[in-house]
Amino acid sequence: MNAKELRDAYVNFFKKRGHAHIPSSSLIPDNDPTVLFTTAGMHPLVPYLMGEKHPAGKRLVNYQKCIRTGDIEDIGDPTHLTFFEMLGNWSLGDYFKKESIEMSYDLLTEVLRMNINDIAVTAFEGDEDAPRDDETYSIWKSIGFRDDQIFFYGKKDNWWGPAGQTGPCGPDTEIFYDNGQPKCSPGCGPSCKCGKYVEIWNNVFMEYNKNDNGTYSPLKQKNVDTGMGLERVLAMMNGVKSAYDTELFIPVIKEIEGLSGKAYADNEKEFRIIADHLRSAVFILGDDMGVAPSKMDQGYVLRRLIRRASRYMRKLGIESGRMVGICEMIVRQYSDVYPELERNKEFVLHSIAAEEEKFGRTLDRGLRVADKMFEELGDERTLSGELAFRLYDTFGFPIELTKELADERNVSVDIKGFEERFKEHQNVSRAGAEQKFKGGLADSSDETTKLHTATHLLNAALRRVLSADIMQKGSNITPERLRFDFNFDRKVTPEELQKISDIVNDAIKAGIDVVCEELPYDDAKKCGAIGVFEGKYEDIVKVYTISGISKEMCGGPHVKNTSELEGFRILKEESSAAGVRRIKAKVGKL
Ligand code: SER
User: Fold this and answer.
1) pTM, whole model, 2 decimals?
2) C-alpha to C-alpha distance for 81 and 174, rounded to whole angstroms
């Protein structure tokens, strides 16, 4: 089975069982400041897991682009990836444990052709927040699993979510491929890292909400959220030890062999880092909400990926300027499944070339200076935070690059010291950093709901005052303010800003009802609704209309009437990236 067949087989299996196929959402979460990237298929679905009605119904299936960058330093081993595709199916208050587990079992055995004896499963052992999941145990038993195939674990292993600090979560049952090798110890089980058990699927029974104060309360509805890593399953099905040995990576690995004249087998770590990081970079840049490399947030993660890849390319002896060719291959390889890559190809390749060139100018000199720093350490085996920061500030060395250089010389790095300097440099106050983890999609408080509606009014006002071509390039809402990025290539004048906020305030004063309709995508487009929509044409979408001013496709939630906003004030207008402006604004009595 190849990747395309696996995606199709998964989606069709669940479509046959009443699930609607929804498109992959953007990798850059909309309206969620709690995380930088979409990390799981459930992430864009948070409002619906919390009770909002999804226009496609209560049973959903998709494959979702995901990025997890918590373990950039682990990339290079056979299992870790920063970008991956997650196959997932959801019940939004519809079926629960029994049907979910039975469907999973049918897919594993009928579609993936697995043998029940090669499967092990887990269940939640219970604690003060939620009871032991005996129901899950009984369901697996009734299917035919033996006791020695079912393992109970605590929160660390058998509880998933929330994706940020608060939101939907619950106990899960994880499904593992048991590769048949002997147990490494009597206690060996799916939570053991010896390699006998390979996790392939996670079914989360999302019936809890984690609150701000750390407590758990029942959600309005009982949901199922499942996730299966496409790359990992593909490797398993093809009997290879790693995703890097599948058709998803082989062409790029071959290309790197050609460029470097070196064999993958002798340089696995370097090859994997380059292939993984460039694939992630292509997907971050090629997203419709794509960002360019920068010093902040997603842009900074992207920069680190490109620079780390660049350093490993140099290590393999590949000359500067070759990154673009590899990235072009990746765009070609994926653009039938993710057409946005082709749409945004020029931006992807231009940004890659520019970043490689920029870093290439300082990399060699930086490596020489770093060498000298390490030499001068003498017996002192720790590189200070100050020196690590100097490598970053002068030569653009991301900290993990410095750490790797240090590791190669058996030297440690004062990471804390580096981070302190880095924070001062970014001028991110402690309060600001913590703020990042509040709010988000899980927060449908009154304040954030008002700001969602204010964002629609602002979007409409910008189109009236500046240009009908204004498009949302990003949106981020905390309980205190909205932040809205849009395409515009000059500063907005004070007079224009005044006009924009007058339009929004007039709409608030007029007390207009906010009306929600569910329409087929085509009809929504025909009636002039704006909004980024990544779906298929037959999909049903929600359209929010504020009569006389705004009509926008959106998942909600929104206020019932604009008067609830009371007033609107623009706090700041600034540049966000080349050709993109950013407005921060708040609502409330003026
Ligand atoms: N959200 C769960 C996970 O990421 C299941 O999709 O594992």
Assistant:
1) 0.78
2) 19
